[in-house]
């Protein structure tokens, strides 16, 4: 699965996708993690103007073109909790995306 995909989906559909991912990482008595590369809209004081502008542009595009959305950390955390995950870690990457590691 393309790692940069959940922003294309509504919260309800994203939870369904994450639940399936959780099933997969726990299958065959294995314990893994889900790795997501996506945008995390952050606190304005933590972002430079260019990065914030790109993130907001993507939010407008995903909202109007595919009915998805960009999410802030609290919104991501709510999705993970609803899908049954217990822990996550967000690491900003170069540019405007972040690596999100989600653990069952």
UniProtKB/TrEMBL annotation:
<protein>
    <recommendedName>
        <fullName>O-methyltransferase C-terminal domain-containing protein</fullName>
    </recommendedName>
</protein>
<dbReference type="Pfam" id="PF00891">
    <property type="entry name" value="Methyltransf_2"/>
</dbReference>
<keyword id="KW-0808">Transferase</keyword>
<dbReference type="InterPro" id="IPR016461">
    <property type="entry name" value="COMT-like"/>
</dbReference>
<dbReference type="InterPro" id="IPR001077">
    <property type="entry name" value="COMT_C"/>
</dbReference>
<dbReference type="InterPro" id="IPR029063">
    <property type="entry name" value="SAM-dependent_MTases_sf"/>
</dbReference>
<dbReference type="GO" id="GO:0008171">
    <property type="term" value="F:O-methyltransferase activity"/>
</dbReference>
<keyword id="KW-0489">Methyltransferase</keyword>
<keyword id="KW-0949">S-adenosyl-L-methionine</keyword>
<dbReference type="GO" id="GO:0032259">
    <property type="term" value="P:methylation"/>
</dbReference>
<feature type="domain" description="O-methyltransferase C-terminal">
    <location>
        <begin position="4"/>
        <end position="85"/>
    </location>
</feature>
